[in-house]
Amino acid sequence: MAIRHSFHAEGFEHLPKTTLRGPWPINASYIDAIAIVAALPPEFAFVIKKEMVRVPLAGLLLRRLGSQFVERFDRHKGATDARRVLKLAATVSP
To answer: Is the pLDDT reported for residue 74 higher than 80?
Structure first.
């Protein structure tokens, strides 16, 4: 069984050009990331809680979408992850 759905995205001219365009936190359904990634330019990525890596299908899918996972409960690891994500964002900014 295949599910097909098309959509149209517009308004990309309103996206910021002088700020970080890389990682964006996503608080909606993690499956929403699939549709959002399909609509956004390739330099966008998502920041997601690290525990999602262990969710079998979602973890695999989110990794393949280029999501960045961050630790939420260990401050040291979380800070390290935040620096890594910000560094990545600086490298993909226009």
So the answer is: yes
